[in-house]
Automatic annotation (TrEMBL):
EC number assigned by the record: 5.4.2.11
Native source organism of the sequence: Paenibacillus illinoisensis
Protein name, as recorded: Phosphoglycerate mutase
GO CC list: cytoplasm
Enzyme class: isomerase
Top-rank lineage group of the source organism: Bacteria
Keywords: Isomerase
GO molecular function: phosphatase activity; phosphoglycerate mutase activity
Length: 152
């Protein structure tokens, strides 16, 4: 992944503090000679605090009912809001190119914020890792252009 992103001249890296996200961020940070900043708002959403045999069905429901949350879980609306706080902060940073390292469900919710057609089926098609580039011109408001650059 570090090689693929080298062309983007990453100048700032923010990651979920969870181990697997940091393991993804580390080679990129080394290649870009950048520090990894962690932000708890990028950690994966907890679907429920109890074991769910039907967790995929529950997850699918969270894409159609953004206010739905299982016991001890976080709704899509709340999870999206915390992730979007991070993205909005990144948009206002002086660096031209920022890498945001997070987890599949949060990534899908952030993409869905800008592209409403991104839902459960698109989440199922995400790979691990997966890389999307969100671009907009400096000072521009509104949704960014979104393109997937990761290929297995």
């Amino acid at each position: 992944m570090a090689e693929k992103l080298a062309v983007h001249s990453i100048a700032y890296i923010v990651s979920s503090p969870w181990k697997r996200a940091l393991q993804t961020a580390a080679p990129l940070a080394r290649a870009a000679s950048q520090h990894i900043h962690t932000d708890e708002r990028l950690q994966e959403r907890v679907l429920s605090t109890r074991h769910l045999e039907n967790w995929m069905e529950v997850l699918e429901r969270t894409y159609t009912d953004e206010n739905f949350a299982e016991e001890g879980g976080e709704s899509s609306r709340i999870a999206t809001a915390r992730g979007m706080e991070v993205l909005e902060e990144c948009w206002s940073r002086p660096e031209q190119s920022v890498a945001v390292i997070t987890h599949g469900n949060i990534l899908s919710l952030l993409l869905r914020h800008y592209q409403r057609s991104f839902g459960y089926e698109e989440w199922r098609l995400l790979t691990n890792p997966d890389v999307y580039v969100l671009e907009r011109q400096r000072g521009e408001q509104g949704p960014p252009s979104i393109r997937r650059i990761w290929t297995d």
